[in-house]
Amino acid sequence: MLSNASRRAFTLVELLVVIAIIGVLVALLLPAVQAAREAARRMSCGNSLKQLALAAHNRHDVYNTLGDNQYGDYSAPTAFGGPFENSSSWSWLALQLPYMEGDNIYSQGGLPTTPLNTSKATAQVVKGFLCPSDAEIKIGAYTEKSHYMRTSVLAGLTSYKGVQGSNFAFGSWINPSADGVNSTEAWEKGDGIIYAMNWQKPKTITKIEDGSSNTFMIGEDIWNKDVPGANRYGKGFGWAHTVHTMLTCAIPPNAKQSNGQPFPVTDFANRHGFKSRHPAGVQFAFCDGSVKFVNDSIPLGLYRALATISGREVVSLP
């Protein structure tokens, strides 16, 4: 005989309570998921920096020079055909492509002698040059016009830039070089390992008097798709051109204005420092190939000391 008893259903109040509990659990879980994803992205970024450092060392084994560029804005007669896109002013990133499985890009693009604006290489997207935490930069190649790439050459982008040192002549953090010799000319006479004219004084491992484990070589930068290359000196984010592939440690990592906000993207003088999308800091590859996370709160004097190769400071990360 069938029972006439009715089955009890959820009331509206009970249903709303369940939904509210689920909402709270999702709200609690979401930050943990986001943190886990960022941890994975940061690990991937660190691995890319590690590979770039190893490629630099592999090239050093062949040419006995670390992180050298091709650039000719200061030489007379001008070396490499000049500083602009119609020259062969290829960057340190471009020159080490054969040592990081980029042989095809290097050879098919006619590096290192073909002018940038006639080479097929500049538009190539190299995954190892991109930080996965910087979502904007993953668009691939971009027609980026700057002072040094004047004719809108299609450029594959990079999140990773060489360390010029800490001598710098502009903005809020003007700083002469550690040895007092090179003044503030960071591009012609940087006091770090990778600056525009470093080919004039090739840097071997033995030239790093402060110790390779205490000296930055490569750090991170972030891209803004709305105003690429929008500054007086045309600093851009293409990996091919020398001037677009270096920054200074005269400026603190992820530097902020006095109101706590980032400097405008058009403010070259105060944005020519290392930046990342990782919370609270920037990752660096050191000259010994190790990779470490540098917190935004690092004392500026220590940060600058880690960027020079012969300041003779006794330094180490906290």
What does this structure look like?
By secondary structure, the protein is an alpha+beta fold. The chain has one domain (19-307). 23% of the residues lie in helices and 8% in strands. The protein is built from 5 helices and 7 strands, in the order H-H-H-E-E-E-E-E-H-E-E-H. The strands form 2 sheets. A 5-stranded mixed sheet has the order 5-3-4-6-7. A two-stranded antiparallel ribbon has the order 1-2. A hairpin with a 4-residue loop joins strand 6 and strand 7 (291-295). The radius of gyration is 24 Å and the shape is globular. Residues 230-234 have low confidence and may be disordered.
Give the topology.
Layout: H1 12-63, H2 92-95, H3 103-108, E1 142-143, E2 154-155, E3 160-163, E4 216-220, E5 246-247, H4 268-271, E6 281-286, E7 291-295, H5 300-307
Parallel strand pairs: 3-5
Antiparallel strand pairs: 1-2, 3-4, 4-6, 6-7
